[in-house]
Design brief:
With about 250 residues, this protein is α/β, with parallel strands linked by helices. The protein contains 7 helices and 11 strands. The chain has helices spanning about 5-20, 35-50, 110-115, 135-140, 165-170, 200-205, 210-215, and strands spanning about 60, 75, 80, 90-100, 115-125, 150-155, 170-175, 180-185, 220-235, 235-240, 245-250. β10 (about 235-240) and β11 (about 245-250) form a beta hairpin. The longest helix has 16 residues, at about 5-20. The radius of gyration is 18 Å and the shape is globular.
Length: about 250
């Protein structure tokens, strides 16, 4: 992969911020940076850190009003300790995640490929100064905007295969921080049915298969959107749970 001078400058800035544990402040968030630039920067950072020699293995659909969809750089099993990012606090998104049992052949085949469902925590931070408010391409370029996905125990997909929007709307979820409930609710997926995002996900992955991701493959993990969001800091212990679907735990280290 060959980077342009501008792309390499951004890669170097993000790597230095990671090394120092300090936010990187570019001279300006250049509005002409496009999504191809962003993916190239993301790949450059990942390559320098030794991540994904075969391409990204996880994807994100959705996000908050401040965070746009992007590939996830790391997928970890629960329980796990997570080191601090360049900023003093993170957003935690509680999500449902699905693993594929085989590689889909097209959007219509995607649901038949789902193997398991699990509870997930997505960590949202940034190496950019004010990065959560940065333009979309800059957020995608920063590997730490979606800092990682921590998954809980996996359950057979067959247990939820018959769920419809009404079933998902009744699904309770909560986020506990240091033993105290920080957020809780019934349902919450923006589409009413988290599976509704999966055909779009496959089409997006296929469209960028050569340049960015290699498409979706057997064993990939896909996340289908946030149900609850909470802010956490270093030292916090976070537990995310969905009724009947298990829970996952994360300890934020300083």
């Amino acid at each position: 992969m060959t980077l342009s001078a501008r792309q390499q400058t951004i890669v170097s800035g993000l790597l230095e911020a990671r090394r120092l544990g300090q936010p990187w402040q570019p001279e300006a968030y250049d509005a002409s940076l496009d999504l191809d630039d962003a993916y190239a920067v993301q790949a450059g950072v990942a390559q320098a850190l030794g991540w994904f020699p075969d391409g990204p293995r996880a994807w994100k659909v959705g996000g908050t009003s401040l965070v746009t969809a992007a590939p996830l750089p790391e997928v970890l099993s629960s329980p796990v300790n997570w080191p601090a990012a360049a900023q003093p606090e993170w957003l935690i998104e509680a999500e449902l995640a699905f693993r594929l049992s085989r590689t889909p052949t097209g959007p219509a085949d995607l649901l038949d490929c789902l193997g398991t469902v699990c509870v997930s925590i997505e960590l949202i931070g940034t190496r950019l100064a004010g990065g959560l408010q940065a333009p979309t391409a800059w957020k995608i370029a920063d590997q730490s905007v979606h800092a990682g996905l921590v998954i809980g125990p996996e359950l057979p997909y067959a247990q939820v295969a018959g769920f419809g929007p009404a079933d998902w709307a009744e699904q309770a979820c909560r986020i506990e921080v240091n033993g105290q409930i920080r957020a809780q609710g019934q349902g919450g997926h923006p589409s009413g049915d988290p599976l509704a995002t999966l055909p779009w996900l496959l089409a997006h992955a296929a469209a960028h298969a050569t340049a960015h991701t290699g498409g979706l493959r057997a064993g990939d993990l896909v996340t289908t959107g946030a149900w609850l969001v909470a802010t956490v800091r270093a030292g916090d212990e976070v537990v995310v749970s969905f009724n009947g679907l298990g829970q996952t735990r994360l300890l934020m280290t300083a």
